[in-house]
User: Fold these one by one.
Assistant:
Number 1:
Amino acid sequence: MTPDTITVLTLCFFSFLAGFIDSIVGGGGLVQTPAILFSLPQYPIPTLLGTTKIPSAVGTLLSAVQYSRRVTIHWSLLLPMAITAFGAALTGSWTLTHVPNTFMRPLALVILITIFIYTLLKPEFGQHVERTINHRQQLIRVVLMAIVIGFYDGFFGPGTGSFLVLGLVSLLGFDFLRASAHAKWVNLATNLASLCFFVSKGMVLFAVAIPMAIANLLGSFLGVRLALLKGNGFIRVFFLCVIAATILRFAYDLLRS
């Protein structure tokens, strides 16, 4: 049965918000995923998750292109990272069909709380670019990061964009703006991997995914424009807000279960 127009329009609204949030510092899944799970409970959860991958992918692509026009992209680091993340996410999605992921939520909650406290106590964190790591070390770090976070995105998902930003800031010395620009391309690779898996299994509602994708594109466009206009200080505050919201969401889910 095709969802009614009001339901689709409601999902488009949440997809717009998700695109806006995700384009700045990641975390759009916190808005989009609960919205579709609540609005369409008659469908299997894998199908709903697969449906969200289309708006997420197109919104992330637009964000990545917009950032690339204003921020210097290190393609020699980005390409190996994106390719590795694609393979890792595909592996994570396949693993999800064989192993439950319920243990991931409390683990992610602990990690997020640590991230929030560390970022809050270090105002200088992510405010400027530090170039103290040689290219070989950077390459090793991004590949390892891509394996871990890519698998996480395919296996569980929420907060992937924020984890990518944090990893690029802490392990490579990027500022928040540059980290967000690179994270978008890697997140696009993980989204495409998961999307390929879900489409191959017939787990996508295209009648819902396409209008959501249009709304997500608009939100992504506005979010990137704001991030480029406001710069690192704004992105840092936004990052803390998204991490705090993620913590509250995970804590609520754990207490409710």
Number 2:
Amino acid sequence: MHNDNPAPRARLLSLLVAAACGGLSATAAADPAITLTAAYALNGVAVPDALPEGSIFATPEGADFYLNRGEGGSSVFFHTYGFVGSPTYFGARASGEGLDFYAKTSALYSGTYTNTTGSAVMLNFGFNLEGGEVALWGDGDGMANLRLQIRRNGQVVSQGDTLVTQSGANFSCLESDIGALGAWAGCAAATSNHVHGAGGAYSVDMGLVAAGETITIDYDIVSTVSGQYVGGAVGSGDCYGGYGGYGEAVALAEDTPHMACVIYNGIARSGDPFDGNGLGPSADFSLTATAVALPEPGSLALLAAAGGGGWLGWRRRRGGRPG
């Protein structure tokens, strides 16, 4: 089985886009960037850069990349995409089947936010998200992992991380969750082999941003599968039409032949809803800032005095002994 640690993680695309985030009253947000990455290996042989082999459609607002490859009884299919405009699309999928496969894709949204008001604000990052799934099927050993993560200045703010592993007839399902994205999925049991995500509108609290402060916001979806299987694969539907309708993206790729049903032993995928959640065909990235009323300096002084008096009283009750 391919080892994930030394595997190449090909940097496919980094595009600055000219779309502004919504909900930014009296604030400033730099144009966000979308970065797509992908790597794979079949039968232990890793490909250093998947981009030349795959199909990619790019616009000034983003790109859509996919690849379907089989060799010597093993195959992978992956799809990663990001468009920040109107509408917006964002997501990643990886799946594999057969004797020895590995596939990893990711979509990364990066942007900055500057509080140009004269007071601190509470900032929320909002977006729509498809349910997706993390699953293993068949006879063999494998791993499927999906991680959704949001960071502020490199520090994790919210995360939904679902890992399913298989060793022979034994399955294991683990969650590593933080904040709002922790609601994306939950293992029904510690031995679950198939987990469905909870699609919908998500709002992540990015915390307090001081007047004049600039922060960096990163949001990525990372899908990874690997395995060694001798049978039991299942089908995932038509790779293009089966997603429930691309909207703009399918129109951009009309000259690309629709693929037949993809067979897989392992799958990890999620992204924007493609209108599957009734939220509209858009990831709908938004930043919403809410002014925070801080106490007046006099009030702060009173609070400090009250706190100091309480501490002195506690000292007296302890007889002045050090704690």
Number 3:
Amino acid sequence: MGANSKEAQNAESKADFIHKLKIAIKEADEAEYWLFLCEAHKSYPDCKELLNDLEEILKRLNKIIATTKGN
């Protein structure tokens, strides 16, 4: 997520910027999947804080994309 977001800062166009952030969202979705699996496993440490952080990241990425499309 971080690498894709950082790469978006050097995008060649608005469309490229949005595309790179959408890739970051896909990476966040994958991370969420793995955290859900970890959360379901009884012997794994609690992942709720990480899931909450990830939810905040997803909200911000989606807001940035929505704002960029609106301009």
Number 4:
Amino acid sequence: MKKIILGLAFLCSTIFAGTINVAVAANVSYAINNLIAEFNKTNPDTKVEVVLGSSGKFTTQIQNGAPFDIFMSADMKFPETLEKENLTATKPVIYAQGSLAMLSAKQLDFSKGIKLIAEDSISKIAVANPKTAPYGTAALEAMKNANILDKVENKFVYAESISQAVTYAMTAADVGFIAKSSLYDEKMSQYKENVNWVSVDPKLYTPIDQGIVILSKAKDNAEAKAFYDFILGEKAKKIFIDFGYLVK
């Protein structure tokens, strides 16, 4: 498996033929190694360097010239913004559809659903920053539609990304709103459905359509096109399904 690179400084020093640089939404961190390993079975000479983070921050970095070839966002809004600014070589398309879950290191009565977080026993709720993380936006929408947002806002512990929200849910908070995909990582197997986590009713939030684009700097990059096509292909779809995503 390929090592995930977590810094722009390293990214900027590794641009050479045979390498593609991909900005990947944090919720995909659990599936990305499997995706790269499968891609490299047919593209062994292509090195895929990945930077993980929040989609909003990636958008700002790309607007400021960050040398990414592909952007795998946690929503469609951010890649659509880049397309409007003529920073993409392709139109945004959906590569997977994510979903929300609530997670706690404690054993909670999740039979109460999202209403559980309004109880006095819950004092800290981990939520990804809705300004930069689409899953945070979805979490707030779910709480608003459940008519509890105003009752729980003072309990929020904001995370910079959805992967950090997972960490907070297991450490600094009583419960957290996370990407359901994180629960399919083998390191999370100790957490049991309806004991430590539960899916958030999908009727409470807008479907989380996750979009991918090839960025302008890679418009003639055959290796970037190959990885892009792979992510939209059947082999990648199977991996996304294995990690709890929906695919079309």
